[in-house]
Amino acid sequence: MKLLSWNVNGLRALLRKDGFTFLADERPDILCLQETRARPEQVGPILPQFSFQYWNPADRAGYSGTVCFSKVEAHQVRLGMGKNEHDGEGRLLTLTFPDFHLVNVYTPNAQRGLLRLPYRQQWDRDFRAYLLHLEQSKPVVFCGDLNVAHQEIDLTHPKANRLNAGFTDEERRGFGEHLAAGFIDTFREFCKEGGHYTWWSMATRARERNVGWRIDYFCISKRLRPALESAFILPRIMGSDHCPVGIILTAASLHDPA
């Protein structure tokens, strides 16, 4: 099973750029998008190769939002994490399949001046509690824009960004606590070196110079590790300031994870 995740930075803008042509080559079974900034009726029927399409738009028009396109029907769909203080922005969408829960997440940014850092820290705590609650029933895959570079190798200029949103000690510690709670950063299972990023500033043409941050992830429960065949980044895919990331899970191992 192949899963892709992408912060599209506006779904309607991406569609105008014909930004999904790469799917013909990649052929994912499930595609998770973040920062869609659209409702389904605003884009009309799209991506007909995915029979099942699950949306969680934000209450505020043109803001945030998540969607999952799947070739497999989910047994259950949850919008949000069940907390009013978090669920109005369309940042969390959970699909339950026979072998795992899939959580598509667009984590809040701490914002310039770290104005939203206290809220972000509360989000991290509540999100981790939500993941652990899901994990009681079956393994969890969570993916999306986590808005944090975990380690110094996950961005080009770690020292210059130490106190900036996305690389504060508090945000890095929050992501580390997700891992300590029993989840695996799948990309780091296969690649230990730096220089691999998923977001680049559009203002400075940073992508051309590969001056970026790795802030988009697939993480899985440790008991799904035997099913993890590969994890990858697709930096060649254009259309957003982020690029897609993905994993492949081996179906035979999914049915009996260690």
Quote the distance from N terminus to C terminus: 18 Å
Percent helix: 10-25%
Helical run tally: 8
- Quick check: average pLDDT? 96
Residue runs with pLDDT of under 50 for 5 or more positions: none
Q: Pairing-aware structural class of the strands and helices?
A: alpha+beta
Over all CA atoms, what is the radius of gyration?
17 Å
**Main sheet, how many strands, which sense, barrel?**
6 strands, mixed
Number of domains: 1
Identify the CATH architecture. 4-Layer Sandwich
Task: Name the CATH superfamily classification.
Answer: Endonuclease/exonuclease/phosphatase
What can be said about this structure in brief?
The chain is an alpha+beta fold.
Give the key terms.
alpha+beta, 8 helices, 258 residues, six-stranded mixed β-sheet, 26% strand, Deoxyribonuclease I, Chain A, 22% helix
Give an overview of the whole structure:
The relative contact order is 0.16. By secondary structure, this protein is of the alpha+beta class. The two termini are 18 Å apart. The protein has a single domain, classed as Deoxyribonuclease I, Chain A. It is globular and about 45 Å long. The protein is 22% helix and 26% strand. The chain has a six-stranded mixed beta sheet with strand order 3-4-2-1-14-13. The protein contains eight helices and 14 strands.
